[in-house]
Amino acid sequence: MQARVKWIEEASFLAVSGSGHAVLMDGPPDAGGRNLGPRPMEMLLMGTAGCTAFDVVHILKKSRQEVTNCEVSIEAERAEAEPKVFTRLHFHFIVSGRQLKPEQVARAINLSAEKYCSASIMLGKTATISHDFEIVELS
């Protein structure tokens, strides 16, 4: 796996993944940016949410659960002093489907958190991580 980041101007950088996808990252106006894209630490949170959502959907499908949607919101706190690592993360899952079993959803989230999601497991080295979920029943 690889990625490349190139400085564009001021606080703007273009990140290109090894698979060829590009994302513009930018800083806030008070740091010389123009707010044209997410901050690098926001990208880290978005990537972590994507990693765990992928796991949860995959695990639920393998468990023959009829999952139709999964959304993950992350709330994060960072250290006051440099390096401003994440110190607390809370993941809130909204899982939609038909006749989803709460114990299966909880199991999928726990497996992701403890075994499969590389991103959240890495962040767990500096942050306290918690999870909760809600199920939206579709008719």
TrEMBL record:
This is OsmC family protein. InterPro entries: KH_dom-like_a/b, OsmC/Ohr_fam, OsmC/Ohrsf. It comes from the Bacteria. PANTHER family: PROTEIN YHFA (PTHR34352). Coiled coil: none annotated. The lineage of its organism: Bacteria, Pseudomonadati, Pseudomonadota, Betaproteobacteria, Neisseriales. It comes from Chitinimonas lacunae.
